[in-house]
Amino acid sequence: GDSVTQMEGPVTLSEEAFLTINCTYTATGYPSLFWYVQYPGEGLQLLLKATKADDKGSNKGFEATYRKETTSFHLEKGSVQVSDSAVYFCALIHVSGNTPLVFGKGTRLSVIA
Amino acid sequence: GAVVSQHPSWVICKSGTSVKIECRSLDFQATTMFWYRQFPKQSLMLMATSNEGSKATYEQGVEKDKFLINHASLTLSTLTVTSAHPEDSSFYICSAPGAPATGELFFGEGSRLTVL
Question: Which of B32, B101, B107 sits opposite A43 (nearest CB)?
Fold first, then answer.
């Protein structure tokens, strides 16, 4: 079945450092890929998405590119802030109807001033 | 974007009691809703798919008699944890796909259940 693998956390960075959170997937066909973020005490929010190969999703300074050849969707940000501290989930879905998301295990990011 | 609301956000109950969690789509109709469970510091695990007007589809290992799901209208799905025990303490999150289907799911705020 479909699956998503994320790098293990937690990740601790200093403010303004460069962030990469690796995500690879296993799926049949051409899924859509997402990054969701969960801030402390809150629900999940969509951060960015990409629906086909070579698409780049971006939002709030975060970027991820859908790489079909490497089945990857790594999340990057050039300069993190303390407010970026959260848990980040990579996920995929097949847009063939009402199907659930398949999530990675999540990566906790802590940014220190 | 589409809004999904859950209630209650927090609930504490005694062991053996039942707890109902509501999930509402506020500005769109959802024929399907998904219920996830999140253990501390772990990922979201799909529990069941709630289908309006029909029985829910449960994932392997989820007790359907313990986690009762009802989807009686296009804007409301409920999850009832029956005879709750401390091991049922968790964060329960519902979600619904937007329309038209883009792949994005909209999530409720989540409901934290603590069973004493």
Answer: B107
Token readout for B59 is 């994932």
Look up tokens 């990057």; give the residue.
A76
* pLDDT of res. A23: 97
How far A99 CA lies from chain B's nearest CA (Å)? 8
Instruction: Classify strands B19-25 and B4-7 as parallel, antiparallel or unpaired.
Output: antiparallel
Instruction: List pLDDT tens digits, range A45-90.
Output: 899 999 889 999 999 999 999 999 999 999 999 999 999 999 999 9
- How many Cβ contacts (< 8 angstroms) between chains A and B? 57
Q: Are B103 and A42 in contact (CB < 8 Å)?
A: no
What is the amino acid identity at position B6?
A: Q
Report pLDDT digits (tens) over B32-71: 999 999 887 777 889 999 988 889 999 999 999 999 999 9
If you average pLDDT over every residue of chain B, what do you get?
Answer: 90
| A contact test, residue of B34, B92, B105 with most A CBs within 10 A | B105
Distance of alpha carbon B72 from alpha carbon B50, whole angstroms: 10
Give the 3-state secondary structure percentages of chain A, helix then strand then coil, rounded to 5: 5, 50, 45
Binding-face residues of A in 37-96 toward B, CB within 8 A = 42-46, 49, 51, 89, 93-95
> What is the structure's pLDDT at A100?
80
What pLDDT shows up at residue B101?
61
Max Cα-Cα span within chain A: 44
Nearest CA in chain A to B38: A105
